[in-house]
Amino acid sequence: MEEVIIYTDGACSGNPGPGGWGSILMYGEHKKEVSGGKKDTTNNVMELTAVIEALKLLKFKCKVSLYSDSAYVVNAFNQKWIYGWMKNGWKNASKEPVKNKELWQELYDLTKMHEVTFIKVKGHSDNEYNNRCDEMAREAITKFNT
After folding, report:
1. In terms of pTM, does the model score above 0.70?
2. d(Cα 64, Cα 11) in Å, to the nearest integer?
């Protein structure tokens, strides 16, 4: 199975407010950068979108090492929150509806197509790929700051 490394980051100016996301996909010698944004969104939506958009670019089943500085995204899988949410009809531990349910459902479906390992990285530190994703996310925000 092909191995792919993905780095993702999301950012928001105000929360909610204009937001952006950036992702880097690395496969062998190849590296692809993608980014985008929305005029009115939240940081968590941008973090999820960065992961979803990167996984959607994979054309066949891959073994993915996915690096994110978002505890929200990483912990949902590594601490198995998402399975509890699904079992409880998309309600969280407080019996409240899970925020961003549609994005979580799309991400869950994508993780079923690949072998995804979520790895937490420290944000705004010395990881060049995480820093580049952050830079792309912030650049995307500027398109909506008018």
Report:
1. yes
2. 23
